[in-house]
Amino acid sequence: MPPIPADEYPLHQAPYSLAYAASSDRNFYDRCYLNAHDRTGEVFLITGLGQYPNIGVTDAFACVRRGDKQFTVRMSDALGEDRMNQQVGPYKLEILDPLKELRITCDADEYGVGLDLHWRGSFPAVDESPHLMRAGAKVMLDAQRFAQVGTWEGSIRVDGETFDVTPDKWVGTRDRSWGIRPVGEPEPAGRAAAEPAANGGFWWCYVPLRFEDFSLVFIAQESADGHRTLNDALRVWPAESGRGVETLGYPKYDINYRSGTRIPESATITAYEPDGTPLVVEIECLGHVALSAGCGYGPDPQWTHGVWRGRDWIEGAVYDLNDPANLIATQYGMLDHVGRATVNGQEGFGLFEHACAGRHTPSGFPDGGTMAP
Asked: Whole domain around residue 81: which residue ranges?
């Protein structure tokens, strides 16, 4: 393969063209995630685009929850040589000003969703701690990510209805990640299928929040026993303030679930100021999007990121979240809620992302079948 345009820039991390990943792991990925909402939870957009260079695939999706339905369009294609071109079919992501401004367009109205949106970061993007997870000796996740909160302007079109998006009301969060995670067609299970882990579990909470004067970013990942394998608690101030990112200790998470489910309704996060003073964040969960219903995040039986569907592939899907079958199928996967937060009398909005699958003893779930009382 000849050099690509990106090779003109001093960005190389290995003795290869930037057309190639430095890792030969088939699960190498490079992707972005963004959400937008009007602070009510009545209309909630989640969208993203990914590239998977070692399996030669790129894909994107846009999902809008309106009422009790999720309208999703997803696209996939062969990954081209120009990695700077973040376009898949009618979906395009443009970097207008790195780490500050983006534009997303998606002309797929015939599949239920159309977008023309301009993102502006409200506070500096912040690095998260490296994400590492193993299944036995095998690395399942080894990734780096940065997060940012901001505002949106433009329009969202869903099911024939257009919503005007103005920055005084519409806010959101985004992240950019790269590294190793399961993508594409499933690998052979091998020994793990014959000797599955006994009564295991996975617990995850990711909460980026935007307030008027600062942003907060919380991340926690725990094993079935409650051992925390990832912990971030950060406060980010405006760039012009001259204040650095502050670490807010080792937070405690108290989550209230809807009875008979594992769907969160509210939460209290108790973090700690640098001087040790408790910082209590109360969160109300508004409307949610089930990432395993059409967005490509596992377990999604219809489509997952990186799966080869052929060139120029596109399809739309509608999910009724009141359907009992969808409720059962999605509550163990990742649920992204619009989060309304209060801290020290200030109100903010952002994302409350949560998953609790299998056993999680600290939450009172002794096995995968137990639900909230």
From this structure: 25-183+199-363
Given a contact cutoff of 8 angstroms between Cβ atoms, the answer to whether 106 and 113 are in contact is: yes
Q: How many C-beta atoms lie closer than 10 Å to residue 325's C-beta?
A: 8
* 207 lies in some domain: yes
Residue 311's CATH number: 2.40.370.10
Omega before 299 cis (within 30°)? yes
Q: Mind listing the pLDDT tens digit for each residue in 13-54?
A: 999 999 899 999 999 999 999 999 999 999 999 999 999 999
Q: Give the N- to C-terminal CA distance of the chain in Å, as an integer.
A: 59
Burial class (CB in 10 A: 0-12, 13-18, 19+), 191: exposed
Structure tokens at 357: 């699958």
Q: Which residue has the tokens 């964040």?
A: 281
Q: For the chain, how long is the longest CA-to-CA vector? A: 61
Judge whether 189 lies within some domain.
Answer: no
Kindly report the length of the chain. Answer: 373
pLDDT in tens, 175-196: 999 999 999 998 888 888 888 7
